[in-house]
Design a protein that fits this description.
The chain is α+β, with helices and mostly antiparallel strands. The protein is 49% helix and 13% strand. Strand 14 and strand 15 form a beta hairpin. It starts with 10 loop residues before the first strand and ends with a helix.
């Protein structure tokens, strides 16, 4: 027949035992353990036995697993099998769970269930009967004489005749009678000898049977030991297969870790390249800014020169206009005087003034006119009589006109020069404006490139942080797997030593009638149980296997100091992460207050980080260290000496301000920044503290979890949580005075950010909250406050509740 199909199963077979309880059936008991999380079986377990070319299937007896005393993580199933199949239980047998087949090792009989010894036969039943021994008779003899002799000697020892009266005398015996008597005495002696031999044989037979039973018992014990060793060898083989699969998985994890390291190295190289590009871009930006500054300064100087030239031109134009006005007035006066002289004086005939003679030889031929001068007479200009006595009347007027013309030419030339300078300045200004525009475009391109580089650098840093976290996780997993593998290999070697002790060497057969040559090796159950216990302890428990009850806590761990409460407080997260922005804003404004807020949030550690965690905050004196231990949904916060590094995940050393800066800082600034608290231990575990700073819990949930904040910290939290745009129509003052603390005030003023102050502000205090520390969180987290905690108006508290609720849900 074909073998059953087997696949890796979640079952590990520990032992297969059979018990003979009398009757026609045997009880087969299979014990194993769960290697992984217990699966949901779709069918009933079935025992399959192959014998005489056929397969027999036997369903499991209706008994739930682990009902008959199996340990944690163990299971046990029993079957009823015909006694005739007992020899075949060690040959071919397996368990069938739907489509999953699990082969079974050789079945053994458990200790204390020995087979009952067979009843020994009585000597009388084994002894051969001698009553029918025939007596030989000679021909012609008397059978009557031989019969009594045979009957008297059968089964009785030889000896003197019984006492009694002598036989009666008879006739003298004949020779035949004497021969018969003699033969009868010889037969009786032979019978007595045979009887002794039979008795010796019976004693030897009984001794041989006793020894055979002893040998059978010893052989059965050796067979049980051999089958037990086979079962343990089978369990060791399965365990080695499990360890091989686990080592293969760890090898794959190590390969992924190496790939992650390679990616991290590539990311670091990319970060360095981006930093170099960023430095080059910054240098280019600085050069462009210098060029832009120089262009701006040149443009300003050009504008100043243009303004100066414009003012000078305006001044010259004004002066020229003033001079032209004066000349026009003089011309008008001159014309008036000339008109008056013409009207009052005699009429004059106009004549052209005489020109001085010019030597003809001094002029070149090209300078002489080629045409005749016009003969048209010039108009006559009247000159007043007062100006022309004894002189040429038109000489002054001609000089004046020439002077005016010369000045007009000078002014035209100056105007042309100024116009040329203005055009040149405008051209230079346009060129500088174009250069400024080009510089602005270059700056915009550089800024865009810089923004892209910043985004890429941020992405690379995030990828680097993710890779570092993955590397830390893989290193921890690899170290744990290596430790477990070493422990498992040590346990396997110890188990092999025990198996070597349990398997005795073959012995030569004992001589008949003699004792055994060597004593059989004794089995040490205590040593075997101790080895198996060490193997189970050092072997990693499968996923989903419950821990053993009553296991004491490890010495030195926080759970060993005193028990933690096991009932976690149910809380409901808020729709929005409101505490993270508040914590960052408070760290920027008052880092010491932010650190105190984080310390006050420590009782909420299990609600934001459900995994077990233990850490120390050394924020002052070492003997006043804050020790935090969160486990099983409960937390213990106390003060004392710092714990050893082996008992905690990490420790933080610094002050409250450094603690707050460490939470909001990035990985690089957390390591190298100034004023940042230092972390020792597993840096990836600091995520538990980071989760506290962005807990999605409202004030009521924080109060139920045991968070108690001092007055200034609580009011600072409320002030930063409220959006100032919601307060445009409200103005009031709230006073908060917890027991043992000074009164602190919260001021709300019409759209301005909420203020927290220790000095009493001017005006009326609308509401006052008093009571133990944490009363403000309880009052603002519930629908209505109690009368003994609140005095004054109720509406400010209702408004604050509404504003804080909007911070939760926006």
């Amino acid at each position: 027949m074909s073998d059953p199909s087997t696949v890796p199963s979640a079952l590990g077979i520990e032992a297969v035992e059979w018990i003979a309880e009398g009757g026609e059936n045997l009880t087969v008991r299979v014990t194993g353990r769960w290697r992984r999380r217990r699966p949901d079986w779709s069918g009933q377990p079935t025992l399959v036995v192959e014998a005489t070319g056929r397969r027999y299937r036997f369903p499991a007896m209706p008994e739930p697993p682990s009902l008959s005393g199996a340990g944690p993580g163990m299971w046990r199933i029993t079957f009823a099998v015909p006694a005739a199949l007992a020899p075949d239980l060690g040959a071919r047998a397996w368990l069938q769970f739907g489509s999953v087949s699990v082969p079974l090792p050789t079945a053994v009989q458990p200790p204390g269930a020995e087979n009952p010894p067979a009843p020994e036969p009585s000597p009388s039943s084994a002894r051969p009967s001698l009553e029918a021994v025939p007596a030989s008779s000679e021909p012609g003899g008397e059978p009557a004489a031989s019969a009594p002799a045979a009957s008297s000697g059968a089964g009785t020892p030889a000896g003197p005749p019984p006492p009694g009266p002598p036989p009666p005398a008879g006739p003298p015996h004949t020779p035949r009678a004497l021969a018969a008597i003699r033969r009868a005495e010889e037969a009786e002696a032979a019978v007595q000898a045979l009887t002794g031999v039979v008795r010796d044989l019976e004693r030897d037979l009984a001794a041989a049977r006793t020894r055979a039973d002893d040998l059978a018992s010893a052989l059965a014990g050796q067979e049980r030991d051999r089958r037990s060793a086979q079962q343990r060898a089978h369990a060791e083989h399965e365990l080695r297969l499990d360890l091989a699969r686990e080592l293969a998985g760890h090898s794959r994890e190590a390969q992924r870790a190496r790939e992650a390291f390679g990616q991290l190295a590539a990311a670091e190289a990319r970060v360095r390249e981006l930093e170099a590009q960023l430095g080059a871009a910054r240098r280019r930006i600085d050069e462009a800014e210098q060029v832009a500054a120089a262009a701006t300064a040149a443009r300003d100087r050009a504008r100043q020169a243009l303004d100066t030239e414009r003012r000078l031109r305006e001044q010259e134009s004004a002066q020229a206009r003033a001079e032209l006005a004066a000349e026009e007035a003089a011309r008008l006066r001159m014309e008036s005087r000339l008109e008056a002289a013409r009207l009052t004086g005699p009429a004059r005939v106009p004549a052209e003034p005489r020109l001085p003679p010019v030597p003809t030889a001094a002029l070149p031929a090209t300078a002489l006119p080629t045409t005749a001068l016009p003969t048209t007479p010039l108009p006559t200009v009247a000159v007043p009589a007062a100006e022309a006595p004894g002189t040429v009347p038109a000489a002054g007027t001609t000089a004046l006109v020439a002077a005016l013309r010369a000045e007009l030419d000078l002014r035209a030339a100056a105007e042309a020069t100024l116009r040329a300078r203005v055009i040149d300045a405008e051209a230079r200004l346009a060129a500088r404006e174009q250069l400024g525009r080009r510089t602005g475009q270059v700056l915009d391109a550089l800024r865009s490139e810089l923004d892209g580089l910043r985004v890429a650098l941020t992405a690379e840093r995030e990828a680097r942080v993710t890779a570092e976290r993955r590397r830390d996780e893989l290193e921890r997993a690899l170290g744990t797997s290596r430790a477990r593998s070493r422990d498992a290999l040590t346990a396997i070697s110890e188990l092999r030593e025990v198996l070597a002790v349990l398997t005795p060497p073959p012995r030569p057969p004992a001589p008949p009638g003699g004792e055994e040559a060597e004593p059989r090796a004794e089995v040490e159950p205590e040593r075997l149980n101790a080895a198996l216990a060490r193997l189970r302890e050092r072997t990693p428990a499968p996923e989903g296997t419950p821990a053993a009850e009553g296991t004491p806590a490890a010495e030195g761990t926080p759970s060993a100091e005193r028990p933690l409460p096991q009932a976690p407080t149910p809380v409901e997260p808020t729709p929005r992460d409101w505490l993270g922005p508040v914590f960052r804003a408070l760290t920027a404004a008052d880092p010491d207050r932010a650190g105190r807020l984080l310390v006050g949030l420590l009782p909420a550690q299990p609600a934001v980080h459900p995994d077990p965690i233990a850490y120390d905050l050394i924020l002052g004196a070492r003997e006043d260290t804050i020790r935090v231990t969160a486990e099983d949904g409960a937390v213990r916060v106390g003060r004392g000496e710092p714990r050893p590094a082996s008992e905690i995940a990490f420790s933080v050393t610094g002050d409250h301000a450094g603690l707050a800066r460490m939470i909001v800082a990035g990985p690089l600034r957390r390591r190298l920044g100034r004023g940042v608290a230092r972390v020792r231990g597993r840096r990836s575990a600091v995520s538990a503290l980071e989760a506290l700073s962005r807990a999605r819990l409202d004030l009521a949930a924080l109060h139920r979890l045991g968070v108690r904040l001092d007055a200034r910290t609580a009011l600072s939290l409320v002030a930063l949580a409220v959006d100032p745009t919601l307060t445009t129509r409200e103005s009031f003052t709230l006073a908060y005075a917890p027991d043992g603390e000074e009164e602190v005030y919260l001021v709300v003023h019409a759209g301005a950010p909420l203020q927290v102050t220790g000095a009493r502000p001017a005006g009326r205090v609308a509401v006052t909250v008093t009571g133990p520390v944490g009363t403000l969180e309880r009052v603002l987290g519930t629908a209505r406050a109690s009368d003994d905690a609140v005095s004054g108006d109720e509406w400010p508290l209702a408004v604050l509740r509404k504003w804080i609720s909007s911070a939760y849900s926006d």
